[in-house]
TrEMBL record:
It comes from Streptomyces violaceolatus. Residues 456-680 form the DUF7824 domain. The lineage of its organism: Bacteria, Bacillati, Actinomycetota, Actinomycetes, Kitasatosporales. It holds the Pfam family DUF7825. This is DUF6493 family protein. InterPro entries: DUF7824, DUF7825. It comes from the Bacteria. Residues 710-848 form the DUF7825 domain.
């Protein structure tokens, strides 16, 4: 009875509490939706912990609702208030940190002051936990530094030294919006200065941020840190050690330059520099050039002051002379000369170190080292040191080695020339496509990987054929296997994109800019997200002309994908006819005959674009195989068999080729290709036979990413010239306008293609060799070597093209020199010489007649150096037009000395090993 009475009494109170909680929650949610942040804070202040926890599910529901319309006016209005309320109504530190740093909360947050107010009444340990959890987030999470610092202040916890916190601190202290003194003043007031400064040197990426936050003037970060160190606010030894350690660790040049600036601002004393001699040695050996130069200057000052032993200086010298930077090598040899002038007894240790430069790739460095050794060799008393110097002289170039025979007693070179053995890479072996996936699950896995990271021709064609096969065999099983893949696509739930449903999107945008867009169309078709009349209209009416130079390449690929999509909906094919045999896109004729026979026996209808693509891909250069396949194809008794037989028996018609100039460029104009313009080909494929006019098409278009270029080469795998002519202006951008990545995405496919390399291919390689970026030049070097290995390189044609491009200013000699030096370093000296012997006379003639421009003359000495080395290694003889006119000039410039070296190599010097 007592229990019953108590329950009866308690029920009204509990009901009242629940009602009050519900009312409070309703008011809070209403204020959040209205974006009344001040009202939200007031309500939260009056709520108990239980009421806050009870309100959270409603706030979570509001968040979920706003996610569906993230950029709407309602969402923008509500988010700051929701951000604060959601954080205040949770109890777990991890949950609050996740809420505060959530992706959907980043773009419109509550102010740090509001968040600190609503969280400030929590336990100090809890606040510390939240602060450190937020600080552990990636810097890209954009968690407010003011919020993290406020939580640290309220909790009294140790300051976090994570990347996010340190970068936020840098921006907070160095930002222009900060007032109240200079950077130095603000740093001096920071209670956590020592810990955060120490973290600066451990945090990646802060160097660049330090640089742009306040520049390099007297109010810069580096100046402020140096001043605080000088005042004793920061421990000097700790800062210097940390700065040197940061330089030793290496990193991005822009970042290291900032720490080097700080090191210079710290103005180390001679004792501090001497104590770190081992660090300077390591930096001079391996650091980026700017840092290495500073370390070299410090060591040089110590050496000239007698505070660096000859043994240590010899160790430094051996390391520096191993580097490729000419400025560092030259400075080290100059330093050795000064030290040897002051200290005769050091010659026994320093000259063998200087002789390390006898094997340097730069002949000027070799000559400087030889002059140094010749000048001071008389100071050497030990016979074994003289023998070591004479032995090292065998690494010198022939002209210098002949001199070392007289001055150092070096061994004369053999009178019998050493036969040069050209080293070229093995020709690439074609990769055969694996059979289509046997199970629908495998198809789904391959498509998922393709959508995530892209693909090459082989992966794309295999996945495409697998999709077609399994849609024909068991559509339901395929759809079930694809469910996890489709669930992540934008069109799966009928979402709107840019204001259009998926069907409207594809109907308006026929272009397939990458593999993912192509498979989105196919998958959306399978799942009924693209209407049949849309597919029919695109296939029947054709694709829109983009008006750009790539239209003739893009439309054939896109037409085939749209045709596949249409057939998936209306009449699934058993398999594709145009699936290539090899990764380059080439299709063996016997395989195509077998596929046509299978279609005939199955009574399947041949798809026009797919079959036309198969005819363009079928191999015709193997005449016995082509003739045998033609006979079998004709025996099928089908129209497609007859067309294949005619294709295999017909010789290719070469288009007319005309060279055209445009600004500084040389481009190629192609005439119509008759065998590709035949009416039996679908309209989209006939575009491949259109003339190529460099002046008529729009060259800037939406195909800038280059993702589809591999597929364009696979359209005509035996005729790379037709593709190269349409991409030549793109490739030229790598040299003319310093565009990055274009040459690297084109040249490997040109080199691997099975057809003849003509005007457009050689010009493409020429532009690549003069590209601004190293990755493009390396791709051009690889293409050069592969073409040479396959016997498809016309070195004379490439050299003549390069000569004209350098004259016109499209290719810079210094870039070309770097590329051909790389090619020669692989052992292809004869190939490089065959190219340069055509380039150099053009440039030397301009130089001798005064027609050379500043840009074409700059770097010519480097080209001559590479040519001389190739001539020495290959034993080339003869003369080079206009070379003597430069070699007979007065002076010792690099241009003149290398011209003399090349003339001597061509005159009589035996080939070196």
């Amino acid at each position: 009875m007592t229990t019953t009475v108590a329950s009866a009494v308690a029920t009204p109170a509990a009901t009242a509490t629940a009602t009050a909680t519900a009312d409070t929650t309703g008011l809070l949610v209403a204020a959040v939706r209205a974006g009344r942040t001040a009202e939200v804070v007031a309500l939260l202040d009056g709520m108990t912990d239980a009421q806050r926890r009870a309100a959270f599910p409603e706030l979570k529901a509001v968040r979920q609702e706003l996610r569906t319309a993230r950029w709407s006016a309602d969402s923008r209005r509500a988010h700051p208030a929701l951000h604060a309320a959601g954080a205040a109504c949770q109890t777990g530190a991890a949950a609050v940190a996740n809420w505060l740093a959530a992706v959907d909360m980043r773009w419109s947050q509550a102010s740090p002051a509001v968040l600190l107010h609503v969280l400030g009444d929590r336990d100090r340990g809890w606040l510390a936990d939240v602060a450190h959890r937020l600080a552990q987030r990636p810097a890209a999470s954009n968690v407010s530094y003011e919020l993290m610092a406020g939580l640290v202040r309220l909790s009294g916890c140790p300051v976090p030294t994570t990347e996010a916190y340190v970068q936020g601190w840098l921006t907070h202290v160095g930002g222009d919006w900060q007032r109240g003194g200079t950077v130095c003043d603000r740093l001096r007031r920071d209670p956590h200065l020592a810990e955060l400064v120490a973290a600066l040197f451990r945090t990646e990426g802060v160097g660049t941020q330090l640089g742009w936050l306040s520049g390099d003037g007297p109010e810069s970060w580096t100046s402020a840190l140096a001043r605080l160190t000088g005042e004793g606010v920061l421990d000097r030894r700790s800062v210097v050690d940390a700065c040197v350690a940061r330089l030793l660790r290496g990193g991005a040049p822009a970042e290291l330059r900032v720490f080097l600036r700080l090191l210079k601002d710290l103005a180390l004393t001679r004792e501090e520099e001497r104590r770190r001699a081992a660090d300077w040695t390591a930096l001079a050996s391996d650091a980026m050039p700017t840092v290495a130069s500073h370390a070299q200057s410090v060591l040089g000052a110590l050496a000239l002051a007698g505070e660096l032993s000859p043994r240590r200086l010899a160790q430094v010298t051996e390391a520096v002379l191993f580097r490729t930077e000419k400025k560092l090598v030259r400075a080290q040899l100059v330093l050795l000369g000064k030290v040897l002038t002051k200290n005769r007894s050091a010659a026994g240790e320093l000259l063998p170190a200087a002789a390390r430069a006898f094997g340097h790739e730069d002949s000027d460095a070799q000559e400087r080292a030889l002059k140094l050794v010749e000048r001071h060799v008389g100071k050497v008393t030990a016979a074994e040191v003289r023998e070591e110097l004479a032995g090292a002289a065998e690494q010198l170039i022939p002209a210098l080695r002949a001199r070392a025979v007289r001055t150092l007693g070096a061994t004369p070179p053999d009178s019998v020339p050493v036969a040069h053995e050209e080293v070229l890479p093995p020709p690439p072996q074609p990769v055969r496509l694996a059979p289509a996936p046997a199970a629908a699950v495998e198809v789904a896995e391959e498509i998922s990987a393709l959508l995530a990271s892209g693909s090459d021709v082989a992966v794309f064609e295999r996945a495409l054929d697998g999709l077609v096969r399994h849609a024909h065999l068991d559509r339901d099983a395929l759809l079930e296997a694809l469910e996890p893949v489709v669930a992540r696509r934008w069109w799966a739930e009928g979402e709107r994109r840019h204001g259009h449903r998926s069907d409207d999107f594809f109907a308006r945008r026929h272009e397939l800019f990458d593999d993912a867009r192509a498979f989105d169309l196919l998958l959306a078709t399978l799942y009924g997200k693209v209407r049949t009349d849309t597919l029919h209209r695109v296939v029947h009416d054709g694709l829109t002309n983009s008006g750009c130079a790539h239209n003739s390449l893009a439309r054939p690929f896109e037409a085939r994908v749209w045709e596949v999509a249409h057939r998936l909906r209306t009449d699934p094919q058993p398999f594709l006819l145009a699936t290539p045999t090899w990764g380059t896109g080439l299709l063996e004729p016997g395989e195509l005959v077998d596929r046509l026979d299978a279609y005939r026996r199955a009574g399947a209808r041949v798809a026009a674009v797919d079959f036309g693509q198969a005819l363009l891909r079928v191999r015709r250069d193997n005449r016995p195989a082509a003739l045998a396949a033609a006979e079998r194809a004709a025996a099928l008794g089908t129209e497609e068999g007859e067309r294949l037989a005619r294709r295999l028996l017909t010789e290719r018609a070469a288009p007319s080729v005309t060279r055209r100039t445009a600004d500084t460029r040389i481009l190629v104009e192609l005439g119509e290709v008759p065998d590709l313009r035949a009416e039996e080909f679908p309209a989209a494929l006939r575009l491949l036979g259109r003339p190529v006019n460099p002046d008529s098409d729009h060259w800037y278009c939406s195909h800038w990413s280059g993702a589809m270029r591999p597929h364009w080469f696979a359209l005509l795998p035996e005729r790379p010239e037709l593709v190269a002519a349409r991409l030549l202006r793109d490739v030229s951008e790598a040299a003319v306008h310093d565009q990055q990545g274009t040459a690297a995405s084109v040249l490997p496919h040109l080199a691997d293609a099975d057809g003849e390399a003509g005007e457009a291919v050689h010009l493409s390689v020429a532009y690549g060799l003069g590209a601004r970026h190293a990755e493009d030049r390396l791709a051009a070097v690889d293409a050069l070597l592969v073409l040479a290995a396959r016997g498809r390189l016309e070195a004379g044609r490439l050299g003549a093209d390069l000569g004209q491009l350098v004259r016109r200013g499209a290719v810079k000699p210094a870039r070309l020199a770097d590329a051909v030096r790389t090619a020669a370093a692989t052992g292809a000296n004869a190939t490089v010489w065959a190219v340069l012997r055509q380039v150099l006379p053009v440039l030397l003639a301009d130089l001798s007649t005064g027609g050379a421009t500043t840009s074409s003359a700059r770097g010519l000495g480097e080209l001559l150096a590479v040519a001389a080395e190739c001539a020495e290694r290959t034993g080339e003889r003869g003369s080079l037009p206009h070379l003597s006119g430069v070699a007979d000039r007065r002076g010792t410039s690099r241009l003149v000395t290398q011209a003399r070296r090349l003339r001597e190599a061509l005159a009589a010097a035996p080939a070196a090993a």
